[in-house]
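Protein record
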Amino acid sequence: MMQKEILDELKTLIVERLKFDPRRAAEMTLETTLPKGVEGSLGLDSLDFIELSVAMEERFGIVIDEAENLADDFLSLETLSRFILSKVK
């Protein structure tokens, strides 16, 4: 699976599970940041991250250890797609 494919899947998850406008998803790039409080980010809060984590586990067949500090992995779509790539290989 390529990073571009994962980015497209993440966009789909964000629209389907977090109820984002599909037009906004079309504008997302690897550089798009995720957490609330970061300028230009999608503004995801802790509940959004939990929902997104569950959706990622279902879609990609990976297991996310909630005990890990994943803040750096969930910083942007690029870091998140690299995190998924490392789990699916």
Summary: The mean pLDDT is 94.
